[in-house]
From TrEMBL:
Keywords: Signal. This is Lipoprotein. It comes from Paraflavitalea soli. PROSITE patterns: PROKAR_LIPOPROTEIN (PS51257). Residues 1-19 form the signal peptide.
Amino acid sequence: MKTSLFAATVIAASIATLASCKKNNDAPQYARAEAFWDANKVPTQSFTGNAASGFSIIGEKGTKVKFPANAFVDGNGNIVSGTVTVTLKEVLSKKDVLLSGVMTESNGQLLESGGEMLIKALKDGKDLQVNPALGDTGIKVEVPKVMNNKDMGLFVQQKRDQGQGGAGGGGQQPQNPTTWIPAPYYPFGNGPNSYSFTLPGFTWVNCDRFYSDPNPKTTVTVLPAFQDNNQVTDLQVILVFKNISTVITFPFNYSIQKFESYQNSLPIGSQAHLVLIGKDSDGFIQFGTQSITISANQHIDAPIHKATQAEVDAFLGSIQ
């Protein structure tokens, strides 16, 4: 049987195309940093309602917020009427905490979270405030107990106190300039299925408590061990605890040129995932993770490398 030159050419081209496709399919699909963060950031949900009569909203993860009549005032303290826009971010898992950047610590002390959220209100593109005249009868929030079911209290976000928790001492630079503090005067309800409270303001709030562990506390240092010859920026060193709903970052200590936990803040014997994540000069995710058991005065040389999307997704799926 004879094969024409044309047919042979077509067959050869087909084989080359299949080989090329196989080669491309086998190539690692590295994660682009910008696309990764866009796809995984905690979404901002948007609602509208009538400010004069009041209205309620329910978030995608079950957070309920009830706005009574005349709940909003503008920047001059005037009661707002008409249609307002309310936005909501729900942080109700350790994965959400990691991806939101709003970690569970208070001036260097560990917090155990039952859920965080950011509620804001706007009219005509301008930020509104909670009507202070409403007091305890103001905006009511219910947070489902999907992240935790322990007794909690209400915390609010504020600028970090540089004089506490080692946040500004010893050359440490906090990863986040804000921290959590207890809300001193807002009643808090621990129901069978939800936490409930009156919203103190349009800011980040947290159903939280200080984590108590009888074990001795220690300080841990981390030094990234880069596997690729590439400059890495926006680098974060994160600790995701396995048995409690706690996620923290390690500030960078310039005096020792290492990432370092807050002094004597980590319970010896606790188990956690150590996570390093950053962006290289080509725009790809640099990533590394390992399971650790915290020991006294521990130092970790932590590998970090250009990671595939599947690798990062697999880790995120394991810390729900």
